[in-house]
UniProtKB/TrEMBL annotation:
CDD domains attached to this UniProt entry: RT_nLTR_like
Protein name: Reverse transcriptase domain-containing protein
Record domain Reverse transcriptase: where: 223-323
InterPro entries: DNA/RNA_pol_sf (IPR043502), RT_dom (IPR000477)
Species of the source: Mytilus galloprovincialis
Superkingdom of origin: Eukaryota
């Protein structure tokens, strides 16, 4: 494990400088546009260190208990929520007073909640299976030389997008090479959003990515097998949280764009909001059951790619994105 680096308080001039910078970013657009006095060729050497130092000196309120949660359960209704709350209440009562009566109430509340949960899951999956949309075929997608550009991918970032990205940040995560914690970004978001939005738009326009964001600390994590074989370890990269926030905004745009243009087929369950491996198991089980009822044979082929993510050529990925119209 890497050694923990102690943080030293930044000089106060950095804080005052960034206060002025944030005010100018909010009021004077001429000075903050790419190519202006602030975002010139040396903006990374001047602005980003100041931003980093200022976030470091932002006080994190230890009494703050705000939790940011997201849900990927569109089938979760108010009735299901009420039964879940009743189950949690019964669980708390049983943990406090372990009587047979409370045990019976707990089991009854759990059975009611699980019955409704499974029912709503089945209904949602059946409805989604019926409403499968036809995917784009290769001839429907813009060709490599068509010059088609999607404006929603190239438009400047808004503070609303940035705020949505900050809400997705998770607390208690290991820091990257810049030692920047997500808690600092979350607690100072109202202060840094204007200038951070300007920095992100400057990167989006000029393609000038800070080198500090691409540096990472690699932690080897053992998977299984022989401990002496390097191939049995999985590398975990600790990267800059601000750099990861920028890529989160990019990914959100690509996800929305691919959904609006039906680029991905509904048969793809990985790395998509609202989808999971249980959906694939449900679809496979439905196909098997249908074949058995018809008295037909059903053949399956399972492919497990070794080091799949490490084996893909990056240039082919870029060419594929260009062919789809992603600039």
């Amino acid at each position: 494990m890497p050694s923990v680096r102690k943080r030293t308080p930044p000089p106060l001039p950095y804080c005052f400088y960034l206060v002025q910078l944030c005010q100018r970013a909010s009021t004077d657009g001429n000075d903050t546009t790419p190519g202006g006095r602030i975002f010139d060729g040396s903006w990374k050497e001047r602005i980003f260190p100041s931003l980093q130092n200022t976030i470091f000196c932002a006080e994190v309120n230890a009494a703050d208990k705000t939790q940011y949660t997201t849900t990927d359960k569109p089938w979760f209704t108010d009735e299901c929520k009420n039964l879940y709350n009743a189950y949690q209440q019964a669980l708390g009562t049983f943990n406090k007073y372990r009587s047979n009566e409370n045990r019976l109430s707990l089991n009854l509340a759990k059975q009611k909640y699980k019955w409704l949960e499974n029912k709503l899951k089945r209904q949602y999956k059946n409805q989604r299976e019926i409403n499968i949309k036809p995917r784009y075929t290769p001839q429907d997608l813009p060709g490599e030389n068509t010059g088609t550009v999607f404006d929603e991918l190239d438009s400047p970032f808004t503070e609303k997008e940035l705020d949505d990205g900050i809400k997705k940040l998770k607390r208690d995560k290991s820091t990257g090479y810049d030692n920047m914690m997500n808690e600092y970004i979350i607690m100072s978001k109202n202060f840094i959003k204007p200038v951070l939005c300007k920095i992100f738009n400057c990167i989006l326009t000029n393609g000038d990515f800070p080198e500090l964001w691409v540096k990472s600390i690699i932690i080897p994590v053992f998977k299984k097998g022989d401990f002496n074989q390097p191939g049995n370890f999985r590398g975990i990269s600790l990267v800059s949280h601000i750099g990861k926030l920028f890529t989160t905004l990019i990914n959100a745009r690509l996800t929305k764009w691919s959904r609006n243009h039906d680029v991905l087929t509904d048969a793809q369950f990985g790395f998509r909001p609202g989808y999971g491996t249980t959906d694939a198991i449900f679809a496979l089980n439905s196909l098997i059951s249908k074949s058995l009822r018809s008295g037909k044979r059903f053949y399956c082929c399972f492919v497990d790619y070794k080091t799949a993510f490490d084996s893909v050529t990056h240039m082919k990925l870029w060419l594929r994105l260009i062919r789809l119209g992603v600039t």
